[in-house]
Design a protein that fits this description.
It catalyses: a 3'-end 3'-phospho-ribonucleotide-RNA + a 5'-end dephospho-ribonucleoside-RNA + GTP = a ribonucleotidyl-ribonucleotide-RNA + GMP + diphosphate. By secondary structure, the chain is α+β, with helices and mostly antiparallel strands. The chain has one domain: Alpha-Beta Complex (tRNA-splicing ligase RtcB), CATH 3.90.1860.10. About 25% of the residues lie in helices and about 25% in strands. The protein is built from nine helices and 20 strands. The strands form five sheets. Strands 8, 9, 10, 12, 16, 17, 19 and 20 form an eight-stranded mixed β-sheet that branches. A hairpin with a 6-residue loop joins β5 (about 50-60) and β6 (about 70-75). α2 packs across α6 (about 230-260) and α5 packs antiparallel against α6. The longest helix has about 35 residues, at about 230-260.
Length: about 400
Amino acid sequence: MYDNQRGEEMDVEFPVALSGAKSSTLMWAPEHEVGAQALQQLRNIAALPWVHGVRVMPDVHLGKGATVGSVIAMKQAVSPAAVGVDIGCGMEGVLTSLTATDLPDDLSVIRSRIEAAVPVGFRAHEDPVSVRKLGLDRGWERFWGSFSSLHDGVQDREKKAHQQMGSLGGGNHFIEVCLDDEDRVWLMLHSGSRNIGKELAERHMRIARQLPHNADLPDRDLAVFLAGTAEMDAYRRDLTWAQEYAARNRAVMLALVMQAVRESFAQPVGFEQPISCHHNYVAEETIDGLDLLVTRKGAIRAGLGDLGLIPGSMGTGSYVVRGLGSERSFYSASHGAGRRMSRNEAKRRYTVDDLIAQTAGVESRKDAGVLDEIPAAYKDIESVIAAQADLVEVVAHLKQIICVKG
């Protein structure tokens, strides 16, 4: 493996076992390159009595309660922190019939159309999106009809949840127009379950912390729900709904972006079958012959043949990958490049001029509001992909030419 950050060859064969872990913990990252707090967080997770094993992706970094870039297989238990507050966050991407030669010299018009179609940051649609007009009219009555069964604390949030359906959010969420190595145009976006997912997650985390069996945990943020309890049933119900909200949110956004792109060209624009993947979620899976609950927080499923999207940063490009079905990784791979510094550190260390230089050639925001998303705040995506060569194969390398952020 070649580490572009250090500029030297590394004699490391992945995975490596995490020292001091009480349950099987394999890493696709050198231990010395992972922060001390993140390593301790992983050891705390591995020490939970319900944990069968932990797998650590090359984009690993410190998270709230559970480490970002972790895959945790549990027996009859699940930790809400191991999913994260943005339940169902993930990626959506689609190959278009356009090529680089079809694009105008001035890409700001396409960016403006996308920003007009999809609210970003804290904004939402004034009126709910007409999904029927977008050709996405299946299952909505059942989906919204189940809102009344969610946690009592969110029942006054239904109107907002309707308005935020088809909106991006902020932080590391984005919409991009990209070119692959054959100069074909792709559309790609990253978002999750918006405020409703966060509200549900935080309410269940508070409930979990108060349960007696979590009293002696090394970190109360790792509190778990146990199978067969009312609390677990309630969490799984709300979790499943929020994961579906996130998937539907991305589908609606992608349809809006596709519509905006169509309207930007005189000729017809075609689209292939979209690629979609969660990277903050829970699934029931068979691991090592056991039926377990697997949480992926900042990790995608990479079963044999599974297509996935692994983004870098707003200036460094992304990858379309196909899973190789690695049993050792619990059929998983990284969800992105992963941060190498906190948002506050990025703001302290870099200037808007640095952001402008690092996003040269990308039609995007270049102001203090997105300085914490500067490419240098992220790990090198090439090294991250190289570290998981046994987990995924590269289908396409994408380089963004338009990036929309909240």
